[in-house]
Design goal:
The protein is mainly alpha-helical. The chain has five helices and two strands.
Length: about 120
Amino acid sequence: MATIPTRIDQALFDAAKAAGELQSRSAAQQLDHWARIGRELESSPAVTHDAIARVLAGQSPYDALGDREQAMVRAAWDQQLTERIGGLDFEDRLRTGGRPWPEADADGNVVMRDAGPSGRGA
């Protein structure tokens, strides 16, 4: 079986490594296992993709879905949250708003940051 290198999120790799250790699999083997399960779920006639899309669009209740559909919705929500969190830049918002903020320095001490050009003042 040929393999193709790909980039994945560090958190997903760490989760695969931890789960794989419990199943005597490498992280790559665990990711492959999860991908196969996902492929089977998506191609299953028991999974109603229209119902999943309606829940993701906020048009239908989550509780109306079966277990498999709920699992797929949770995976989609997890990905959406990860993408949104990755795009957050609170320092930029605070600086733009002219507001100071507390932050931990390298030693774990609380330091107040100002909204000036350097953001490193008292």
